[in-house]
Amino acid sequence: ESCIILNKSNSYHFVSLTTHQSEKRLIVVLESASLETAKVGGEYVLLQADRHRDRIKKLGRDPADYRPDIAHQCLLMLQDSPLNRAGLLQVFVRTSRNVLIQVDPQTRIPRTYDRFAGLMVQLLHKLAIHAAEGSRKKLLKVIKNPITDHLPAQAHKFTTSVQADASLTEQLSRTPVTDQPVVFVIGAVAHGSISADYAEGSVSLSGYPLSAALACAKLTGEFEAYWRIEELRAEHTTASRTDK
């Protein structure tokens, strides 16, 4: 069951009224996100390859691994998606330093990278971002590992890879998830693959290599079609007008 509320941007936002473990939804885990802070010039910053190359090298690490902009792009795609607005998306982020973050569906990700970076620094140091000053609602929060403690035990869990044998369409025909949660792990990295020992298999979203952000967009788009999000929204809108 869902209801519609009007958010600050005056766009319709469907919010789920139930949060049972068995509730139908897509759960996305952004894995190995480069979200790490360090003190530079007297203040804490989110380490980023182009801006903090020398500092990263002093730490004995590869600057190419420090791409927090990838997590930013992914979160924009996910949180702005019709699937999320329909209350059918849940997002977690696990950083390369093994910090686990839960993202509330109503979180609006900052449009600019600099604001996003500032928000992540605040989150990683204060462990939570509240909806408003004095509010108890946490839009972003650091939670305890392992990630499996926060995932429905019965949900199918997959990683994504261009080399996977089965496409998403083929996998959904084998293991339908019309009324149950399903988990997908996407690497928030520029190159290479990620592993998730709790995943039962891997699926391909495209025959071409995709950026992490495009993989997020394609995945949510596939489930919007699979769960008929736009059709149901249109039906709901028509019914609401009829009731008036």
From TrEMBL:
GO terms assigned for molecular function: rRNA (pseudouridine) methyltransferase activity; rRNA binding
Superkingdom as given in the UniProt entry: Eukaryota
Alphabetical keyword list: Methyltransferase, Nucleus, Ribosome biogenesis, RNA-binding, rRNA processing, rRNA-binding, S-adenosyl-L-methionine, Transferase
Main location: nucleus
Keyword Methyltransferase: yes
Cellular component aspect of the GO annotation: small-subunit processome
Cell location: Nucleus, Nucleolus
Pfam families attached to this UniProt entry: EMG1 (PF03587)
Gene Ontology terms: biological process: rRNA base methylation
Keyword set includes Magnesium: no
Family recorded in the similarity comment: Belongs to the class IV-like SAM-binding methyltransferase superfamily. RNA methyltransferase NEP1 family.
Protein name per the record: Ribosomal RNA small subunit methyltransferase NEP1
